[in-house]
Amino acid sequence: MKILQEKSDCCAAAIIRYGGKRRQCTHCRKTWRVHVSKRGRKQKRKQWHYLRNVFRHGMRIKQLSLHSLLSYATIYKRFAKNLEAAICKKRVVRVIGKKLILLIDAEWQYFSDDLWTLYFLSVKAVGSESVTIFDPILRCGKENASVWNELIEQLPTGIKKRIIAMVSDGIRGIESIAADRSWVLQRCHFHLLGHLQKMRGKRTSTPGRVIREKIYNSVAQALKETDHRRLEALCKRLSVLVQHSKCPRAMRMAVNEFLRRIDEFRNYLRYPKMKLPTTINVMESINSFVRKKSLTTRTPQSWRKWAIACVRFKSKFTCK
């Protein structure tokens, strides 16, 4: 029986052994490995407990080195590698519920005199208190409605089809985004009252303090008034109060905008079955959590990484 020896791919010459796992061509003396393996040291298992301790249990990276034999520099290097691996990992978002409510908010910060904005989007099922947050998206420049429209279009189709309402603050142009999709728009009460609170005045010597107090109380009452006649009386009273000479111009503009958009502030009463939240305080909690964790970031890219890690390791917040 004739034995057919394997020939080399380079010269079609005979092959001989060249060590335990290597072979050699007898013509050109080229060597190769029988079982090709990956170059370099084997990758160690990812240590997710570093990320969990920081983003779930509120620890700092320096605290991780106190109970470890490793130095702070070594732990920080491993933390950075694990953070990069967590960001690159594909995430699948599943939301339970036939009808969903979209909540949006943004956080901005300056890096090297350039303004960068993180856009946060989250959804909750009607009647549920749990909010699911998507990965924040970083854009250069000021928050605007055109970017919001672009990001909403990028939402998964299965989720976007189930959205029936949106809750937002007073960003200009957001009403057209909701109207184009036939969504119910609920504006945030907290932002409106907070803006008026700054102009309310704390000292008795503040010019027009009585007028400011009446305006603030009338707006707060109009937001929750259920009687139609009383609501009309409150709106007429606000129209008269803002014309007072001691009413600040900024407060007058805010109240006039409220009177124009009063239906959008009171949609939670017009559609009680939707159980619309009247504030986006849950989004403010998310922004505060991200801001607290990313205090040491110095670049917009690192700010984005930390924000995504915050959302992924604590992706559910409570919205009552």
What are the salient characteristics of this protein?
three-stranded antiparallel β-sheet; elongated; seven-stranded mixed β-sheet; single chain; alpha+beta
Please describe the topology of this protein.
Layout: E1 15-17, E2 22-25, E3 31-33, H1 49-55, H2 61-64, H3 72-88, E4 100-111, E5 114-125, E6 130-133, E7 137-140, H4 145-153, H5 157-160, E8 163-168, H6 174-180, E9 184-187, H7 189-198, H8 209-224, H9 228-241, H10 249-260, H11 262-265, H12 267-270, H13 281-293, H14 300-313, E10 316-318
Parallel strand pairs: 4-8, 8-9
Antiparallel strand pairs: 1-2, 2-3, 4-5, 5-6, 5-7, 6-10
Helix pairs in contact: 3-14, 7-8, 8-9, 13-14
3D architecture notes:
It is a single chain. The chain has 14 helices and ten strands. Helix 3 (72-88) packs across helix 14 and helix 13 (281-293) crosses helix 14 (300-313). Among the domains are: 1-36, no CATH class; 49-88; 189-271, no CATH class. By secondary structure, it is an alpha+beta fold. Strand 8, helix 6 and strand 9 (184-187) form a beta-alpha-beta unit. Helices cover 42% and strands 17% of the residues. The termini are far apart. Strands 4, 5, 6, 7, 8, 9 and 10 form a seven-stranded mixed beta sheet that branches. Strands 1-2-3 form a three-stranded antiparallel beta sheet, with no helix packed on it. The longest helix is centred in the N-terminal third of the chain and has 17 residues, at 72-88.
